[in-house]
Every structure is written in structure tokens, then in C-alpha cells.
Design brief:
It is globular, with a radius of gyration of 21 Å. It has a domain of 151 residues: UDP-N-acetylmuramoyl-L-alanine:D-glutamate ligase. Helices cover 34% and strands 16% of the residues. It is α/β, with parallel strands linked by helices. An 11-stranded mixed sheet has the order 5-4-1-8-9-10-11-12-13-15-14, with helices on both faces. It is built from 16 helices and 15 strands. Strand 9, helix 7 and strand 10 form a beta-alpha-beta unit. The structure holds adenosine-5'-triphosphate (ATP) and magnesium ion. Magnesium ion binds next to loops.
């Protein structure tokens, strides 16, 4: 399948994670990290991370012809990244960029059983990724261009995101649907001082599908509320009014489809009620537009055998995009997205739990249970199975009848 022209290009952040195995639990970090001490560890688990690797490989596992466009340097870690990706399919590396002047991004995950983890992360080549790194000739002809994560890609958030807007505009002008995911900016670092509202105002007119997590969205649009949640002075669990208000701001800034990832609370989906905006949302969305106008839906998580949530957000996006490629209506797409997200948490790594698209559909058809909705959705209407809630404003056929 990967020999076909790619339907989806996944570009942006990629890194390699080096995770040493610890022979036994430790009492504290202080007990282990003493100056001059040698800690013997076991074999390292080497896996790739970042939006390019996670969403890209999840799409590949779902059977979608995909191309990965991340940037690495001409070094050992860069070769490791290419090697891991090629292990899934050598064709996946054809769009990867090797910059002779860059160093590859890596994370050392110090994860002894018994204490919390420490990450040593070098952003490397992701810091300098710019619009010129994307070869538009390779993007032309694809249906979707998915990009993540500007908050940990320095050049993408400098100057109020000018470079990000330039890239997304250029891709959108090709008639390709643009999709954007975020990451949590480090509040104490440069990215935490960026005016994210300005970045979004500049980028979202060129973004068709915006799929950040709720926490990232609150951080970017309402820092005071974010800080109040951190201090325990505001509720961590959102209500539907907050979701509606945040999504309205993002639609007003120019996005056509907003998906807010709610972690273990599920997924919220809202689409523009402007038919012209939807028709201009690129090759993926323009043909579907009947049931995608003015939608507002909410769903809890599918019940999953939890092994690790790394990459759940990236896999959820892969599920949403695959559902759209299959021409599914909004009420199925939100369920498909959470199904792939739930499958992904059943393996400890980012994408190992993602099965084929057919297997996802078979599991859904066999009556896959969902958790009860834990968000107060007063005034919203559930379906018979209590899997899907529609807002009072949702433009479903029932609502219009
Ligand atoms: N414990 C879980 N069980 C089932 N599904 C889950 C669970 N945790 C998350 N999910 C699914 O994964 C989706 C994405 O998770 P989350 O909101 O944590 O994304 P994220 O913050 O972007 O995460 P990350 O960037 O770490 O991948 C959720 O919307 C949900 O559908
Ligand atoms: Mg995420």
C-alpha cells in the first residue's frame, strides 16, 4: 500500500527515545544519582517519538498510504530514527529530511521503577525546522498535510508563528487539507512566553482541522484559567460551556473543524456552520460536506485495557483522519477517532496497539463498550447507547426536523 502515492503527509516533530531498562526498583533519585556513581542498567529500548513518528506510523498501521517529513541530522541518532521508521516500511522514510548542519533530536528517558520519570531532551533539528524544509512538490497530490508540534519547534513559534503560517498557507493553496496538533509549551521556557493567541490567529486561517488537547487549548487561549486549574482553584473537569466557548474562538480564528482531546474524558468535535469555509477545507473535507456542517458532538472513551497513554493523542488524530478518508459522517468519525485512541493505550509504546482499520471497525461492530460520560452535558442529547452526545445547537438531521 505504501508504494501508492501518499494520501497523507505527516510533518514536523520527530525524535528518538532511548529508554534504559532498570534491573530493580529504586527508592529515590537521590539514591541513584550520586556524583561519580556508576549505575548498571539493562538493554536500551529505542523507539521514535513525536507527531511525525506517532501519527505517521499509526496511519500506516491503519493501512493509509502516508509519507513522513521530519528533520534529522547526519549522526548516529538520525540514523537510528530512519532505521526505526524503515523497520515499519522503508518507503515511509522517503520524505525524511537529513540536514547536514543539524543534530538529531533525542530524549533520554530515565525511568526507574518506583519513582517518577526524568526526561533529558534535545530538540535538535526540530528547532530549525522551517517552511523551506517542506518540499511542496512532494505535498502536491496528497489529500492531507498533518503538522505537529509547533510549541517544541522553535522556528515555528518565533515571530508570532510567522513561519508556521507561511508553511500552512503554502500547503493550503495546493488544495490539500491542513491539520494541526499542538504540544504543551514548557511554561518556564521561551515557548511558555510566546503569545499563543497571536500564533493561533496567524495560523488557523490556513488550518482546516485543528486537534489540540483541551489543556493545551486552555493554556494558549486562557492562561489565567490554566493557572487557576494548576493552583486547584478552578475545576480540572471541563463543562460543555467551556468546550463550546473555546471551540467558538478557534472557529472564529479560521479553523473549519476543531477536535479537542480530553484525555480520559473523551473527545469533543465541532465544525464550522459556514458552508463556504467547509467547501474550502481542501481535498479531504470538501467532498464530504453534507453532514459536516455546524456539528457539535461529545463522546467518552472506549473501555481499554490500559498499558500506557503515550501517543494516545497522535493515534486519535490518525483515527480521525482515516475516518475522514473513508468518507464517514461526523458522528462516526468521532467514534472512530476515540476507538483508535483507546486501542493505542493498550500497548505501552505509542503506536503498537493500533490495529488495522478493519480490526477497529470489527471491534466497534462487536459492541465495544464506552465509559460513562463524566462531563456535565446538561441540555445535550445522548444516543441510545450513550456513546454520543449532541449539543442543542448541533445541526443533525434530527435537530433540523
Ligand atoms: N485511558 C484511556 N482509555 C481509552 N481511551 C483513552 C484513554 N486515554 C486517552 N484516550 C483516548 O485518547 C485520546 C487522546 O488522549 P489525550 O487527550 O491524552 O491526548 P494528548 O493530550 O494529545 O496526548 P499525547 O500528546 O500524550 O498523545 C482521548 O481523546 C481518548 O479518546
Ligand atoms: Mg498531544
Amino acid at each position: 500500500m505504501s508504494k501508492q502515492n501518499p494520501l497523507i503527509i505527516v510533518a514536523g516533530h520527530i525524535c528518538v527515545d532511548i529508554i534504559p531498562a532498570w534491573p530493580q526498583a529504586v527508592e529515590s533519585f537521590a539514591a541513584v544519582f550520586k556524583p561519580g556513581r556508576l549505575n548498571e542498567v539493562g538493554p536500551a529500548l529505542v523507539s521514535t517519538g513525536g507527531a511525525v513518528s506517532n501519527t505517521g506510523i499509526a496511519l500506516h498501521r491503519l493501512g493509509v498510504p502516508v509519507q513522513l517529513m521530519g528533520k534529522v541530522g547526519p549522526d548516529l541518532f538520525g540514523r537510528a530514527i530512519l532505521d526505526v521508521v524503515a523497520g515499519y516500511d522503508p518507503a515511509l522514510t522517503e520524505g525524511m529530511i537529513v540536514d547536514p548542519t543539524a543534530d538529531s533530536s533525542y530524549t533520554l528517558v530515565i525511568n526507574p521503577p518506583g519513582v517518577d520519570r526524568i526526561f533529558l531532551h534535545n530538540p535538535g533539528a526540530n528547532r530549525t525546522f522551517g517552511a523551506a524544509d517542506v518540499d511542496l512538490a512532494k505535498v502536491r497530490g496528497a489529500k492531507v498535510f498533518h503538522f505537529g508540534y509547533p510549541p517544541i519547534m522553535r522556528r515555528m513559534h518565533l515571530d508570532d508563528g510567522a513561519e508556521l503560517a507561511t508553511l500552512l498557507r503554502a500547503v493550503h493553496d495546493l488544495g490539500v487539507t491542513t491539520s494541526l496538533d499542538m504540544a504543551q509549551p514548557d511554561p518556564t521556557a521561551e515557548a511558555g512566553r510566546v503569545d499563543w493567541r497571536r500564533v493561533l490567529e496567524n495560523a488557523l486561517p490556513h488550518v482546516d482541522i485543528f486537534a489540540p488537547s483541551l489543556d493545551e487549548t486552555i493554556f494558549m487561549l486562557d492562561r489565567a484559567h490554566y493557572d487557576a486549574i494548576q493552583r486547584g482553584e478552578a475545576a480540572r473537569t471541563p463543562d460543555v460551556d467551556l468546550l463550546h466557548r473555546l471551540a467558538q474562538e478557534l472557529l472564529d480564528m479560521g479553523a473549519a473543524v476543531v477536535a479537542l482531546k480530553l484525555g480520559e474524558l473523551g473527545l469533543y468535535l465541532r465544525t464550522t456552520n459556514n458552508a463556504e469555509r467547509l467547501a474550502a477545507a481542501g481535498a479531504l473535507i470538501a467532498p464530504l460536506h453534507a453532514g459536516w456542517l455546524g456539528r457539535e458532538l461529545l463522546t467518552p472513551c472506549y473501555v481499554a485495557n490500559l498499558a500506557g497513554t503515550t501517543g494516545a493523542g497522535d493515534c486519535t488524530i490518525a483515527g480521525l483522519l482515516t475516518s475522514l478518508l473513508h468518507g464517514r459522517p461526523a458522528e462516526e468519525a468521532i467514534l472512530d477517532a476515540t476507538a483508535v485512541g483507546a486501542a493505542s493505550v493498550e500497548s505501552p509504546d505509542a503506536t503498537g496497539g493500533v490495529p488495522t482499520w478493519e480490526a477497529v471497525q470489527a471491534r466497534r461492530a462487536a459492541g465495544w463498550e464506552k465509559h460513562p460520560l463524566r462531563i456535565n452535558a446538561g441540555g445535550w442529547t445522548p444516543d441510545a447507547a450513550h456513546h454520543l452526545w449532541r449539543s442543542p445547537a448541533d445541526a443533525s438531521e434530527e435537530a433540523q426536523a
